[in-house]
Amino acid sequence: MAAPIAVAIDAPDIETAARWASAVAPHVSTVKVGLELYLRYGPDVITTIRGGNRVSLFLDLKLHDIPATVSGAARAVARLRPSLLTVHAAGGADMIRAAVDAAPETRIAAVTVLTSLDDAALERTGVRGPASDAVRRLAVLAVEAGARALVCSPHEVASLRAEVGPDITMITPGVRPAGADRGDQARVATPEEALAAGADLLVVGRPITRAADPGAAAASIAAALRRAGAGTGTRSV
Ligand SMILES: O=c1ccn([C@@H]2O[C@H](COP(=O)(O)O)[C@@H](O)[C@H]2O)c(=O)[nH]1
């Protein structure tokens, strides 16, 4: 069973993206395409990345607009059949439901509070209280609006799981192997910690894609997760 890792293919061009995807695909369950590639290449990049790779596609577009616009956008990308599509939970219940209704075959994942924000940075946006409170509030709102997956940091997974139950897919960026550069991520944990907290899918980008050998880096994190018990439960993404 492939490791529950979504590799963030945040590449500057389609050739690099294809190379990274082929290198990591034997070791992970999922590849994630985000704004950088999708805004430049559109659906072509999805076709290229899928290629001969047997991986799920996670389309991380973080839609955030009025409900009618998000509905149209979600419908437009649903035909690409991503397994996951992100929206910002802060767009509100009607917006989230619009995405859910427009893409019934895709699991809509609500981004709670970006993992690049710590409590102080969040407060500067006007949101009072610790990030964990905002994450909880947004997660409950999103699930009530029909989202079947949540994006949060590894720090919030365990308490959110208790709040939203076992059927919601918990996705955690902000994952850094011990000693890795955290870059612009603020709320981080190791892959083993994220798994132990109950994450279903770990998003890992630069620690893999910026390694000298992305395939080996993905294999190494996958092996660490297997040693920590990944794949022994009943949940899959
Ligand atoms: O809260 C969030 C939501 C999405 N992301 C995305 O995950 C990857 C993380 O990449 P790294 O290189 O491992 O930092 C990136 O594509 C983000 O857009 C996130 O980091 N935090």
UniProtKB/TrEMBL annotation:
<feature type="binding site">
    <location>
        <position position="10"/>
    </location>
    <ligand>
        <name>substrate</name>
    </ligand>
</feature>
<comment type="subunit">
    <text>Homodimer.</text>
</comment>
<dbReference type="InterPro" id="IPR013785">
    <property type="entry name" value="Aldolase_TIM"/>
</dbReference>
<dbReference type="InterPro" id="IPR047596">
    <property type="entry name" value="OMPdecase_bac"/>
</dbReference>
<feature type="binding site">
    <location>
        <begin position="60"/>
        <end position="69"/>
    </location>
    <ligand>
        <name>substrate</name>
    </ligand>
</feature>
<dbReference type="InterPro" id="IPR011060">
    <property type="entry name" value="RibuloseP-bd_barrel"/>
</dbReference>
<dbReference type="Pfam" id="PF00215">
    <property type="entry name" value="OMPdecase"/>
</dbReference>
<feature type="domain" description="Orotidine 5'-phosphate decarboxylase">
    <location>
        <begin position="4"/>
        <end position="221"/>
    </location>
</feature>
<feature type="active site" description="For OMPdecase activity">
    <location>
        <position position="62"/>
    </location>
</feature>
<keyword id="KW-0456">Lyase</keyword>
<feature type="binding site">
    <location>
        <position position="205"/>
    </location>
    <ligand>
        <name>substrate</name>
    </ligand>
</feature>
<feature type="binding site">
    <location>
        <position position="32"/>
    </location>
    <ligand>
        <name>substrate</name>
    </ligand>
</feature>
<comment type="similarity">
    <text>Belongs to the OMP decarboxylase family. Type 1 subfamily.</text>
</comment>
<comment type="pathway">
    <text>Pyrimidine metabolism; UMP biosynthesis via de novo pathway; UMP from orotate: step 2/2.</text>
</comment>
<dbReference type="GO" id="GO:0004590">
    <property type="term" value="F:orotidine-5'-phosphate decarboxylase activity"/>
</dbReference>
<dbReference type="InterPro" id="IPR001754">
    <property type="entry name" value="OMPdeCOase_dom"/>
</dbReference>
<dbReference type="InterPro" id="IPR018089">
    <property type="entry name" value="OMPdecase_AS"/>
</dbReference>
<feature type="binding site">
    <location>
        <position position="115"/>
    </location>
    <ligand>
        <name>substrate</name>
    </ligand>
</feature>
<feature type="active site" description="For OMPdecase activity">
    <location>
        <position position="65"/>
    </location>
</feature>
<feature type="binding site">
    <location>
        <position position="176"/>
    </location>
    <ligand>
        <name>substrate</name>
    </ligand>
</feature>
<feature type="binding site">
    <location>
        <position position="206"/>
    </location>
    <ligand>
        <name>substrate</name>
    </ligand>
</feature>
<feature type="active site" description="For OMPdecase activity">
    <location>
        <position position="60"/>
    </location>
</feature>
<keyword id="KW-0210">Decarboxylase</keyword>
<dbReference type="GO" id="GO:0044205">
    <property type="term" value="P:'de novo' UMP biosynthetic process"/>
</dbReference>
<feature type="active site" description="Proton donor">
    <location>
        <position position="62"/>
    </location>
</feature>
<keyword id="KW-0665">Pyrimidine biosynthesis</keyword>
<comment type="function">
    <text>Catalyzes the decarboxylation of orotidine 5'-monophosphate (OMP) to uridine 5'-monophosphate (UMP).</text>
</comment>
<protein>
    <recommendedName>
        <fullName>Orotidine 5'-phosphate decarboxylase</fullName>
        <ecNumber>4.1.1.23</ecNumber>
    </recommendedName>
</protein>
<feature type="binding site">
    <location>
        <position position="185"/>
    </location>
    <ligand>
        <name>substrate</name>
    </ligand>
</feature>
<dbReference type="GO" id="GO:0006207">
    <property type="term" value="P:'de novo' pyrimidine nucleobase biosynthetic process"/>
</dbReference>
<dbReference type="GO" id="GO:0005829">
    <property type="term" value="C:cytosol"/>
</dbReference>
<dbReference type="InterPro" id="IPR014732">
    <property type="entry name" value="OMPdecase"/>
</dbReference>
